[in-house]
Amino acid sequence: MGLKEGTTLRAAVDEKPRNIGAYAVQCAKCFKLRLIPTEEEYEVIRQAFDEDPWVCNRKPNASCDDPADLEFGDTSRWVVDKPNIPKTPAGCKRVLTMRGDFSKMDAWYVMPNGKRVRSLRDVGRFLEAHPEYQGQFFVPNFRFTVPKVMEGMFPGISKEQGSSGTSKRRKNSKRGGSD
Question: Is the keyword Nucleus assigned to this protein (predicted)?
């Protein structure tokens, strides 16, 4: 399975399919996948990917001549991040969770005081309610864009399955159609 040039990836390779187990990036030259050791390093790469495409020789002791660190396979669950998402503001934690039906992920941030925000509107409300953070955080520093779940990477999950709301709409549209 090929990806378009300049793709950043997250690979959920641990035993807990709803948690991210590894971070990877695709080389802009050879298109091989390379593991990125930390979420923080991954976010730095992702935030400027279009302006500064990542290549294998940025990873210590790696080159395009080396075998890929990861290959797509049926045993790993993959989601693809969009490039140029800002790095999570210092003191906050960006949380991504896979829905139970593996149809998509949800994103939110945990603020320094433990409060969760789930939208830009929530960030604005948080800043209004907590003026002590107004010089530290700015609404444009937060993105709720979620990675795309790669089709065919979840055994038993078909393209027809989606979130529960999507499934209900599909069932209703099938019932309402002419047979």
Answer: yes
110 φψ region: left (φ > 0), alpha (ψ -120 to 50), beta (else): beta
Residue 5 has which token pair?
């040039």
Distance of alpha carbon 139 from alpha carbon 120, whole angstroms: 6
Question: Which stretches does DSSP call E strand in the chain?
Answer: 8-12, 22-26, 33-36, 77-81, 93-98, 105-110, 116-117, 148-149
Q: How far apart are CA 29 and CA 53, in angstroms?
A: 9
Q: Which residues contact 121 (CB under 8 A, 6 or more apart)?
A: none
Q: Model-level pTM?
A: 0.68
CB distance 24 to 33 below 8 Å: yes
> Exposed, middle or buried, 16 (CB in 10 Å: 0-12/13-18/19+)?
exposed
Tokens matching residue 28: 């802009």
Domains detected in the chain: 1-87 (no CATH), 88-148 (3.30.890.10)
